[in-house]
Structure formats: structure tokens, C-alpha cells
Amino acid sequence: MQAAAEMLDWHGSGMGVMEMSHRGKEFGQIYAEAEADLRELLAVPAHFKLLFMQGGGLAENAIVPLNLSRGQNADFVVTGSWSQKSALEAKRYCAVREVATTQASGFTTLPAPSQWQLSARPAYVHICSNETINGVEYPTLPDLKALGCDAPLVIDFSSHVASRPVDWSRVGLAFGGAQKNLGPAGLTLVVVRDDLLDRALPICPSAFNYKTVADNQSMFNTPPTYSMYVAGLVFKWLKRQGGIAAIEARNIAKAELLYAAIDQSELYVNRVDVACRSRMNVPFYLRDERLNEAFLAGARERGLLQLKGHKSVGGMRASIYNAMPLAGVQALVAYLRDFEARHG
Ligand SMILES: *Cc1c(COP(=O)(O)O)cnc(C)c1O
Fold first, then answer.
1. What gap in Å lies between CA 100 and CA 111, rounded to an integer?
2. I want to staple 100 with a disulfide (CB 3.0 to 4.6 A). Which of 7, 111, 187, 258 is the partner?
């Protein structure tokens, strides 16, 4: 792997990336290339800033209201564990209105935007565009303008960033921790429209003030340099794969294969509405839950790891992020069939 080869000497500079000053020309080049590559990959328009921050998705649950709420209320659409957490955290900084929730369905569906009870003038509207734990993903982003709402849409795209294109005309701000699809933990990506930069509350910490971060090219404080470097290598890998369109096609193929295997079986079930099933996170249950331990043990024997579902929902979950090749999903599908033949 390139990061290992360059560990002690980056491009003949005599320094490893960890030894570099974040203000030196070598790291400057790493940063500039990562920024440009990601902007190109995600087709981010010029009137959006790309910020590299720290604190992960959960910190953004506080940082967003600190920057955008302006003493007004924010509207939240609650479709699973992550958006629920976001709404709870935002309550510490602004008034929160839950304008739609699918909790009654066990978070297995999405509420139609036409049914959202949007407030008259929310500071912003928050959604989680892919609910990692519940396996629910917006097939298209809601168009707030078409709903008569001028507020910016905020999306938590932590768990499917770079897996599909983003319609930036519908988005005011997007945030995501890097660790699911972009690279190592420690780096948080924020993509924010220019007109939203300058409205932070006075109590907003300077290192979390989007304008301060933007004005300093994400170097107001020392950024997570090594994570940015490795993420930059991932961006180059994504480009070599053919960019986001090619990655999306591969993700669709992977997801279709796995959902078809689950739907065709008598043993496994996925309870999410077909229209909003996640391409990244596929939760499923064994109809006979007494077989759970045997299922997981057999999977481990084949090198199929991390299939246990999140503790809050139980069952199983296959997370098939960008880095999971089609062959990995094919191996899982073969195991599903084998296990069912033996136990079904
Ligand atoms: C993983 C995840 C988070 C949590 O991010 P941290 O980086 O651990 O703070 C937030 N939102 C979503 C949708 C996630 O999948």
C-alpha cells in the first residue's frame, strides 16, 4: 500500500507525512490535491466550501446548530438512530421541531416530503440521507424549494458519501465523518454553501466556526494531517475506479445482488421498504433467531466478518461500503445460500 511505502519518505522529501509541518509546502500540496480531487469527484460547485474538520459526525450535530441556527428553530426529519441523535444534540443549542418521524414503523421507511410538517421559517432542515443502523437511504434528496421552504437542507451523509452523486442544488450543507467511505477516522468533511458561512452564534468555538475554518483553508488549528493524506490516496483510488458514476454502478450491482438473495430466501428477511433500502448498509434477520450464533460462527470461518447487527436493532447487518468489492458480496451471498440449505 502506498501509505506504507511512503511512511518514512514522502516523494523524496526526506520526511514522512507525520513529520511535516501542516503549513509547509509539502503538506500544502497534499492538502491542495485532496481538496481538488474531492471537489471533482463529488462535483461540488464553486459556491460551496470544502472544509476538513475534526470531531466526526457526532460533533457536527452540535457544530451545525452553533453555526446555522441564529436563534431560530431547526426542523428535523427523524428516520433512524442517527437523525434522532442529531435532533437531541441540537436541542442544546436551538429550538428543535421534529417535523416527521418513521419511528412507528421501526424506522423501515421514509416519510414523503409532502407530509413533512415544516415550520414557517426554520433556520435549516436536517435529514440523515443514509441511516447506517436502520438501512434506510433517500433515493433522491428532498427538494425543499418545491415544498415552499427557503431554508437550507442539511444532510448527514457520513455513511454514504462518495457512494453516489449529490444534487447540490438541493443542499445547503453536508457533513460526514471520513471513516466509512473516505478514509481513516479523525477527519470530518463539511461541504457548505458560501452564504451560510457567516451566521454563527457568538458562543460558537472558533475552531468550529465554519467561516474561520474556511478563511484559513481548514488550517485555523492543526488539521488531522495523516488522515487527510490517506483520504487523499482514497480520492485518487476513486478516480482510478472511474469516479463516482462508476462507483455508484458498482454499488447498485452489489446491493441488488444481496437484496435479491435475501428476498428470495425463506430464512432471511429485510424489513425496509424496497423504495428506500440503503445501498451501503443491509440489515437482515434470520426468521429463526436461534440460528444467529451458528450463522455468525460459520461466517467467521469463511472470513466474513462484522456481520452482527447493531445492538440497538439486533439481527445481522452487511455494510458494503465503497471499499467492499463485488467479490465480497458474492462470497456473502454464497454463504447465505449454503447456510440456508443446511438449516432452512
Ligand atoms: C457513523 C455515523 C456518525 C457518527 O460519526 P462519528 O464520526 O463517530 O462521530 C454520524 N452519522 C452517521 C449517519 C453515521 O453513519
1. 7
2. 111
